[in-house]
Amino acid sequence: MSHAPLVIPAARIPRGTCTLFGAIKALGTIKNSVVLVHGPKSCVYPINYTLGMRGDRPPEIYTTALDEHDVIFGAGQKLKEAVIYLDRTLRPELLFVLSCCTSEIIGEDVGSAVRDTTTRARTIAISAGGFEGDFHTGYSETLCQLVRELVHKPGRTSPRTVNLVGMLRAGPDLAELRGLPGLTGVRTNAVLTADATREDLERPGYAALNIVLCEPSGKEAAIL
Prior knowledge:
- The chain is an alpha/beta fold.
- It has 2 domains: about 20-150, Nitrogenase molybdenum iron protein domain (Rossmann fold); about 160-224, 3-Layer(aba) Sandwich (Rossmann fold).
- The protein contains 10 helices and 7 strands.
- It has helices at about 20-25, 40-55, 70-75, 75-90, 100-105, 110-115, 135-150, 170-180, 200, 215-224, and strands at about 35-40, 60-65, 95-100, 120-125, 160-165, 185-195, 205-210.
- Strand 1 (about 35-40), helix 2 and strand 2 form a beta-alpha-beta unit.
């Protein structure tokens, strides 16, 4: 029996957010960190506003505020200066530099700019072009990159310890979930990534088991 091909209408009401939103959500509550988006201010303001209204991201998310001149002539030097400014001014432990649709389309090499800039903070470049996927794509890929870049690889694990992976929200939800394993004599080793410290992000490899709390966002990182 043949089926008619799926027809996708030219105009649709969006039912989800983009890769950039998911990446920022993954990074937004990491302690002593700064998020810098290499893109226009219009990409960052709605995310700041939305997460601020929900209480997920009290600190600000920064942007290089790309404009028409930057899009035409490039803004690699502007990005380097922004990274140095945030590193020296805020002195974070972790500095995350994200691309977005605009910087990806014009071919800005965020990774090279980060590698060429000397910072006190551990600085990590993350590809987050909004057209690359949806919210879960951004969260999942960002989480996987954090695992590859930061997690230590110990020789052995600690028994009766677990990681909570794909945790989206800090606050009361996190406190409750962090305590649940203890009711069965199991210790929570690390949470990825809500309210995490740099040390939390470095020690998931010591846990005996990963518990994935949000499959679309956390499954791939848990497998790593």
